[in-house]
Amino acid sequence: MLLANLAMEATGPVCFRNQPVPQELVLELLNHAVWAPNDGLREPWRFIFVDHRNADRMVGLQEPAPAYLIVVMKEEADRYKREEDFAAVSCLMQNLELLAPEKGLGIRRTLNEWRYDRQRAGTFGVLGNEWIAGVLELGYAEQVPGRPAADSRPELRFELL
Amino acid sequence: MSLAELIRERRSIRKFNSTPVAEELVVELLQTAVQLLPSSAGVPWRCVYAGTPESRKRLADYMLQTVSHSRLGKLIPDKMLEVFKKRFMDIPAHVVVLAGTGPDPLASERNYAAVCSILQNFQLLGWERGLGMLWDTEAMIQNEGLFQGIGMRADERFVGILHVGYYNKAPRGRKRTPAEKKWTVFQG
């Protein structure tokens, strides 16, 4: 299927079925997603999977979901590398979001205030030299009546130099 | 080609051929790239496009004026700067991408991540149409000359310059570390 056609498909809000997400499925998708462009092949990402047995630990931090994937990146001292790494990890998460619907998986990508709470992040195993780049709320997607794709093209600020 | 194949087979392209790139195609792909990000509504960002020989030359001049006046730049032989400039100007199209910063650091990070995600969509959509790209974030090009030349504002953040063109040969991919090796299951 052409990626360009995917844009024409209806997208609704992601709702989750109350059903565990197997880690094998997430790993399978991640092994495609890691082909994101990343400078110097630093592969600056690491993954912490919080499955249904521990999903309650996210109460107050995240919306309820059957599973969570905390995507962390190593913090480079160099400011340019830091930005490149955040860009690379963002591309990886985007890859994952593109792939997920084929497997019936829904993803809500979040970046919440608690990424700055080092102690809280630490309880999930985020190290002192790492930052949370995104927390993905995961679950099998409930069939949501799709809304038709917008007729109008999205606004794009495109200026000529 | 499946989506997984598209993601795995896309390469960063450093060597372009001289086939011109249609501005309309770039706009179309950028619009589709935005549509592919469900949370893209309201994300502040913009693109500055250099797709004509004149605008490419201007962009190269902006970038190089600071470089050639810097202490480090003075050590670079003029000849090398000329080669750099020519290579840059020979690339059919450049898209300079800026993200809005937002009211606080968290909002800025969110915007930046959203714009990066749009650019990944853009690269994949381009690949589907035979277009190659290089997302350039080289520290050397991120200088005042460039920022002033393109009119970057204080509430904007530089995301990169995407060099865009058709290519004759895609480089081989470099193997990725299996996700299993970067994987931890939280044990509570």
Automatic annotation (TrEMBL), chain A:
Enumerate the spans annotated as Nitroreductase domain: 16-55
Q: InterPro entries from the xrefs?
A: NAD(P)H_nitroreductase (IPR052530), Nitroreductase (IPR029479), Nitroreductase-like (IPR000415)
Please indicate which superkingdom the organism of origin belongs to.
Bacteria
Q: Name one GO molecular function term.
A: oxidoreductase activity
One Pfam family of this protein, by short name? Answer: Nitroreductase
Q: By what name is this protein known?
A: Nitroreductase
TrEMBL record, chain B:
The cofactors required by this protein are: FMN
For this UniProt record, give its keywords in alphabetical order, as a comma-separated list: Flavoprotein, FMN, NAD, NADP, Oxidoreductase
- Identify its protein family: Belongs to the nitroreductase family.
Protein name as it appears in the record: Nitroreductase
What lineage is on file?
A: Bacteria, Bacillati, Bacillota, Bacilli, Bacillales
A Pfam family that the UniProt record links to this protein: Nitroreductase
InterPro entries assigned: NAD(P)H_nitroreductase (IPR052530), Nitroreductase (IPR029479), Nitroreductase-like (IPR000415), YdjA-like (IPR026021)
Q: Which GO terms describe its molecular function?
A: oxidoreductase activity
Where does the Nitroreductase domain start and stop, copy by copy? 7-166
